[in-house]
User: Fold this.
Amino acid sequence: MITIDPMRLGGALALSSGYLAMCFAIWRARAARNSVPAADADWLVVYASQTGSAEYLAGQTAATLTTGGLSARAVCMSHLEAGALSKSGRILFIASTYGEGDAPDSGARFAGETMDSAPDLSHLHYAVLALGDSSYTNYCGFGRALDGWLAAHGATPLFERIDVDRGKASALAEWQHHIGRLAGTADAPDWEAPSYGDWRIASRALANPGSAGAPLYRIALVPLDGALPVWEAGDLAQLSAPADPEHPREYSIASLPAEGRLELMVRLQRREDGSLGAASGWLCETALDTDVIRLRLRAHQRFRLNGNAARPLIAIGNGSGLAGLRALLKSRIDAGHGDNWLLFGERNAAHDYLCREELQRWLAAGSLARLDLAFSRDQSTARYVQHLVREHAQTLRNWVDKGAAIYVCGSLQGMAGGVHEALTEVLGRETLDALTAAGRYRRDVY
Ligand SMILES: Cc1cc2nc3c(=O)[nH]c(=O)nc-3n(C[C@H](O)[C@H](O)[C@H](O)COP(=O)(O)O)c2cc1C
Assistant:
């Protein structure tokens, strides 16, 4: 497996035009799938998605079938009712792959429980669109496993599984072609990606002077034409550097539109030869405030507050992961909710205490009910954010009992796995699985 750096290189490599058209199209697709009553749908489009690509494509797929006069419904794999496989005759699966060939969080229960059982699926016709990235060892691992499991239990493929490498347009066109044929229509809805807009840097500040880690910049951007587009806490921004226009990078947005600017926290990357990373080097150092920044927004449905807006929020993360968490916290605070708890980890309090003044202000004002910090290098034994989870186990259980949602943002290596293990220990696997299925445990890790 390649290492994913904070610039979300892996995720960004998965982008290509016509693929990650999340922003406004998701809402349109959502409207289409909500219009089909659950019980009446002849076709289920089941998606297992982490960052929204599979979800978006499922919405488009259901919309295409609906255009052809069929009843179709897109449903998240975590919401698939027990018995759905035995009741449904036609299911299209769209599944991404994470970890080391694993299902995304929303497919974890299906992969662990359903795919561990041996139902008779001889009544079922299906197809699989597997999303992945061929630079990983287990390319499209979950989609492939799913396809194999369905076939092994007697289900009949409508057509051969389609593997999509980094959003490759030709593979998606093949899927769209098959769906058009099933729907009996060439009149497919628009699957095109939204175009990039022109932005400029309004301010840029080093957020961790003197840090033992790589420099991290807080960068505020505004559109050239002055009108800020709409986004929600949890959403992402895609930018491409002039030196490397084919590989947009993805960053969590740290601010809300009401603040009048789009803020990012960008870690400056260096390659092994010491040269600056193409996108981070440009954004953090080279780009002038007169330069045009090509940027587009990406709705990240799985990391938005959505149904959790009124629930207590437990935000857990490290490093530049504070960007996504800050937007979520700000959104709840602006809505008048003070039952927010941040558990944050970095290296040294003296240099890496990001957003220090704001967090302390929020704490003093009661906008933040709790703030727990782990600075790994401030004592002889390393202390990470997962240690905080264990130390505050009882408080965490109380918050979850009160209905809290848990959002984790930051590095995949070390942090996300460690936090997941600690949460499993503190809450129990069953509870954590149930929280995942209910959308109360959400992760944006990279
Ligand atoms: C941390 C991480 C791990 C990944 N692991 C794999 C993998 O093991 N195999 C693979 O084919 N793709 C892997 N991918 C690529 C995703 O499956 C791919 O980007 C997919 O399009 C994401 O779809 P989604 O937005 O619906 O979650 C990984 C991506 C990330 C960010």
